[in-house]
Amino acid sequence: MSRVVAETPAARRIMSQILGSDLWLKREDIVQDKWEPEFSASDTMTVTPTNVDASIYVAIPLLSLCYINLIATLTTGGVASHSVIFSLPLPARFSRACFAAVVIDGSFDTARAQTSQARGSLVTVNRGSAANWTLGTGRLISISGLYLTA
After folding, report:
1. β partners of residue 100
2. Cβ contacts of 7 within 8 Å, gap of 6 or more
3. Could you give phi then psi for residue 10, rounded to 5 degrees?
4. Contact 40, 87 (CB under 8 A)
5. Distances (CA, A) of 6 to 10, 19, 26, 65
6. Closest CA to 144 of 82, 33, 68
7. Is 63 helix (H, G, I), strand (E, B) or coil?
8. 70/94 Cα distance (integer angstroms)
9. Which whole-number Å values give the CA distances from 40 to 2, 54, 61, in the listed order?
10. Which of 12-21, 23-32, 71-80, 102-111 reaches the highest mean pLDDT?
11. 1-30: buried (b, 16+ CB within 10 Å) or exposed (e) per residue?
12. Residue 74: strand pairing partners
């Protein structure tokens, strides 16, 4: 169990039982930035980002943790397939780390998003209905979650 107590604008105190003792983190121990994810797709489907509304990550290297938030509008082409793929800001320690995800692919659909089994630096996004993506403009993915970094 952890708790955060802000004592001054320049520092935060985080007490953690993770390492068996209190762990103090300063603001400079936390990295918050934007990243430019690279997009691709499974098989011969193509994916082109038309707008990336959010691509923010917050990392705590000392704890090997990273939180991501990605909202992107895409155009799909080629031959419809089951997965849209994007790169993470930092490689994941484990394959199959899961993220919360929503897809708007012509209509609202839940989605499954997880780190790739082949490489932990990629995330695959599949429609919850297990159907192939439809081809066209205005395909939206919204993904967020916390994962352990390599």
Report:
1. 144
2. 13
3. -90, -10
4. no
5. 9, 21, 11, 20
6. 68
7. helix
8. 20
9. 37, 18, 27
10. 71-80
11. eeeeeeeeeeebebeeeeeeeebebeeebb
12. 49, 139
Classify residue 7 as left (phi > 0), alpha (psi -120 to 50) or beta.
alpha
User: Which residue type, as a one-letter code, is found at position 29?
Assistant: D
What was the pLDDT predicted at 22? 59
Q: What pLDDT is stored for residue 117 in this prediction?
A: 57
Rounded Cα–Cα distance for residues 134 and 113 (Å): 17
**CA atoms of 108 and 127, how far apart (whole Å):** 10
Tell how far CA 20 is from the center of its chain. Answer: 29
